[in-house]
């Protein structure tokens, strides 16, 4: 068997595929802590501290609340240990402002991700 | 005489090609779209395309399990068929009294389509105790007559002097096959592998009959099973279809020549 | 025994050993089932009870009492009868791509691309194409103004079978094309040259040279077309499951339903025997049409 055999498409293509799958799984292994980070801001762009951020998970028909956390002084929030690849986020403040409910879609379960800021505003 | 102009033929073939490719495109576009797929009029270009339908499908249905079942069944069928077809093909190159009858028998077996055998084949598989198992699904594909004849022709094309020299060197029969004949029959091996792969990968009726539990279902069965479950307004079902089609298409495109050669040589030998 | 005889016996044993696994598979899954079907069709049998000889009763029930059988039979014949259309179309395409057209290989691949797909997937794809709301075909028909309301292709008694046949057409066209291309490429070019020199016009060249020499390939296509009505089980199962009330019921789907739905193995066996006889009769008939001897030519 010479090295020429490695050039054949029957060898190169499966090997490339295996390498791809291995690389993807490696990436997943390093990034699957279920961390979801973001910020809550108001209309003007200033961070909102003390807002409650709720993460909803999907069951068969609708989304139900799974866990909530509060933003710190800088308006950042962080969830850890999430297990899902799809969910929804919403931010609520004590004085009645809320943000849109935003859909979160990930590439794999418990993917670490950072979302764009949630904008809270008064809704009538 | 001037050769006829190529333009009309190109135009016709381009129209034909577009017609043949439309189904692929339509399903692909549906699997990528982010809006309600039942909205009328359907858009020609997907609106708000995203790949998350594929992620949903991966987690929503036991896709890995189906994939595993299909891969194992195909691997068993390919390995077994290589072994048995090579052996039978080699045996047929030798001269022995009943040879003509065996060849005739095999040719007449080719006349019996698989669909004429399903009920008793199910009973036999049940009697053998391999219902609802990988072996049970792979069993009928472990030997095919077309491939036996392809190997036979390929082995017969090897010059006798090589074989005689090997025998003088004291190699056993099986060694002769493996060391001398097989390396010279690469295209026959490729054809056998491709044909068996396609037949086992795409098989629907036989696995439908043989599997009794959802865990043993192969990809085509999984597809049919979720047809009713996944008729929602997202393109998830069609993402499933695309995911299922990709391995088959990829392998076909990689091994086109062998596949076509296998089909035509098997066909003309029949 | 002499050395030669011992060697010979060893060789015989080896041959037997090598042939045994394959022959076992064929025996178990081809020959035995065929015989068993025939035997079973003359008996009444349900699992757990011994079989009872009833002669032709299964066949009588099939022919006299069973409307579904006649529907299935006529649908299967219609299905097979549409094969010549597909073969003609494939022949036209083969002629077009056979020449030294630039990019012919790409055209061939595109046309053949549908064949290696899972038939189940093809069924789902076409089911979607025929859909009233999201489907391409209704979209085109309505945009072109040919119809006002969406056409329910797969739910209509008249259109269901042609719709399924069209889906099958899309898949099998590539296979016919490959067979015919192989046949076309084995026609010696010098025949055409001689004809051209003799001043034979193009259409006569086609009728007198191409068609007769393509007979083996055409016969093969017809056999494939007949077998195709059996393998279309997947398509029907996914698209219509027998259709609006048996409008797309084929013999093979009826056999499956009788055997595994109603668990009437004996009746299903009788149906299988009829289907097999149909295959043989049609193949012999096609053989006659292609000039006998499997259409093969003197070589």
Describe the structure.
The complex is a heterotrimer of chains A (124), B (270) and C (299). Chain A is α+β, with helices and mostly antiparallel strands and 124 residues long. Chain A has 2 domains: 30 residues; 87 residues, Immunoglobulin-like. Chain A contains 1 helix and 9 strands. In chain B, helix 7 crosses helix 14 and helix 10 packs across helix 14. Chain B is built from 14 helices and no strands. Chain B has 270 residues and is mainly alpha-helical. The longest helix of chain B is centred in the N-terminal third of the chain and has 31 residues. Chain C is mainly α and 299 residues long. In chain C, strands 1-2 form a two-stranded antiparallel sheet. The longest helix of chain C has 39 residues. Chains B and C meet through helix 1, helix 3, helix 4, helix 5 and helix 10 of B and helix 1, helix 4, helix 5, helix 6 and helix 7 of C.
Topology overview:
The complex is a heterotrimer of chains A (124), B (270) and C (299).
Chain A: H1 9-30, E1 36-42, E2 52-58, E3 63-70, E4 76-79, E5 86-92, E6 97-99, E7 102-105, E8 113-114, E9 118-122
Parallel strand pairs in A: 1-8, 1-9
Antiparallel strand pairs in A: 1-4, 2-3, 2-5, 5-7, 6-9
Chain B: H1 7-32, H2 52-60, H3 63-93, H4 99-110, H5 118-128, H6 134-138, H7 145-156, H8 160-168, H9 173-181, H10 186-202, H11 205-210, H12 219-229, H13 236-254, H14 256-269
Helix pairs in contact in B: 1-13, 2-13, 3-7, 3-10, 7-10, 7-14, 8-9, 10-14, 12-13
Chain C: H1 3-41, E1 43-44, E2 52-53, H2 57-65, H3 67-81, H4 83-98, H5 104-112, H6 119-129, H7 136-143, H8 160-185, H9 189-197, H10 202-213, H11 215-231, H12 233-239, H13 251-261, H14 265-289
Helix pairs in contact in C: 1-14, 3-13, 4-8, 5-8, 6-8, 6-12, 8-11, 11-14, 13-14
């Amino acid at each position: 068997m010479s090295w020429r055999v490695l050039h054949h498409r029957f060898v190169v293509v499966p090997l490339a595929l295996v390498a791809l799958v291995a690389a993807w799984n490696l990436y997943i292994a390093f990034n699957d802590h279920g961390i979801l980070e973001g910020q809550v801001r108001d209309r003007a762009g200033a961070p909102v501290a003390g807002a409650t951020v709720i993460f909803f998970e999907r069951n068969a028909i609708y989304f139900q609340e799974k866990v909530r956390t509060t933003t710190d002084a800088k308006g950042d929030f962080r969830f850890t240990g999430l297990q899902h690849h799809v969910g929804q986020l919403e931010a609520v403040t004590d004085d009645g402002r809320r943000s849109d409910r935003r859909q979160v879609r990930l590439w794999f379960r418990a993917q670490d991700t950072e979302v764009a800021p949630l904008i809270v505003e008064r809704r009538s | 005489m001037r050769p006829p102009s190529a333009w009309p033929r190109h135009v016709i073939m381009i129209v034909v090609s577009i017609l043949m490719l439309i189904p692929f495109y339509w399903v692909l576009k549906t699997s990528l779209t982010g809006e309600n797929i039942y909205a009328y009029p359907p858009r020609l270009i997907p609106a708000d395309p995203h790949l998350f339908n594929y992620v949903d499908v991966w987690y929503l249905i036991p896709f890995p399990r189906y994939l595993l079942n299909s891969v194992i069944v195909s691997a068993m069928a390919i390995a077994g068929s290589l072994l048995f077809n090579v052996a039978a093909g080699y045996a047929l190159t030798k001269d022995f009294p009943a040879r003509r009858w065996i060849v005739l028998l095999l040719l007449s077996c080719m006349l019996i389509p698989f669909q004429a055998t399903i009920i008793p084949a199910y009973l036999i598989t049940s009697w053998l105790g391999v219902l609802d198992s990988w072996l049970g699904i792979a069993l009928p594909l472990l030997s095919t007559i077309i491939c036996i004849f392809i190997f036979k022709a390929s082995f017969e094309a090897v010059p006798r002097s090589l074989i005689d020299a090997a025998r003088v060197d004291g190699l056993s029969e099986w060694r002769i096959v493996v060391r001398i004949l097989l390396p010279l029959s690469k295209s026959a091996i490729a054809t056998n592998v491709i044909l068996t792969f396609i037949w086992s990968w795409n098989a629907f009726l036989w696995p439908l009959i043989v599997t009794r539990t959802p865990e043993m279902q192969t990809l085509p069965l999984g597809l049919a099973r979720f047809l009713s479950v996944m008729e929602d307004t997202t393109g998830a079902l069609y993402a499933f279809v695309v995911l299922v089609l990709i391995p088959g298409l990829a392998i076909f495109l990689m091994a086109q020549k062998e596949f076509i050669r296998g089909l035509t040589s098997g066909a003309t030998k029949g | 025994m002499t050395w030669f005889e011992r060697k010979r016996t060893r060789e015989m044993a080896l041959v037997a050993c090598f042939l045994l696994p394959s022959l076992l598979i064929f025996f178990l899954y081809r020959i035995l089932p065929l015989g068993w079907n025939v035997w079973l069709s003359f008996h009444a049998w349900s699992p757990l009870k011994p079989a009872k000889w009833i002669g032709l009763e299964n066949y009588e029930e099939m022919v006299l009492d069973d409307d579904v059988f006649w529907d299935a039979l006529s649908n299967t014949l219609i299905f097979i009868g549409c094969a010549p259309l597909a073969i003609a179309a494939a022949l036209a395409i083969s002629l077009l791509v056979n020449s030294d057209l630039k990019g012919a290989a790409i055209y061939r691949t595109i046309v053949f691309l549908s064949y290696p797909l899972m038939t189940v997937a093809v069924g789902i794809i076409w089911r979607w194409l025929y859909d009233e709301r999201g489907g391409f075909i209704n979209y085109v028909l309505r945009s072109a103004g040919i119809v006002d309301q969406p056409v329910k292709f797969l739910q209509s008694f008249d259109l269901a079978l042609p719709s399924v046949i069209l889906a099958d057409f899309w898949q099998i066209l590539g296979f016919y094309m490959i067979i015919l291309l192989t046949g076309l490429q084995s026609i010696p070019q010098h025949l055409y040259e001689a004809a051209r020199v003799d001043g034979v016009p193009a259409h006569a060249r086609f009728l007198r040279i191409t068609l007769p020499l393509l007979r083996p390939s055409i016969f093969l296509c017809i056999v494939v077309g007949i077998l195709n009505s059996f393998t279309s089980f997947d398509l029907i199962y996914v698209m219509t499951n027998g259709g609006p009330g048996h409008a797309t019921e084929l013999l093979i789907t009826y056999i499956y339903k009788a055997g595994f739905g109603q668990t009437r193995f004996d009746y299903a066996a009788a149906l299988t025997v009829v289907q097999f006889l149909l295959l043989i009769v049609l193949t012999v008939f096609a053989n006659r049409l292609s000039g006998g001897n499997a259409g093969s030519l003197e070589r």
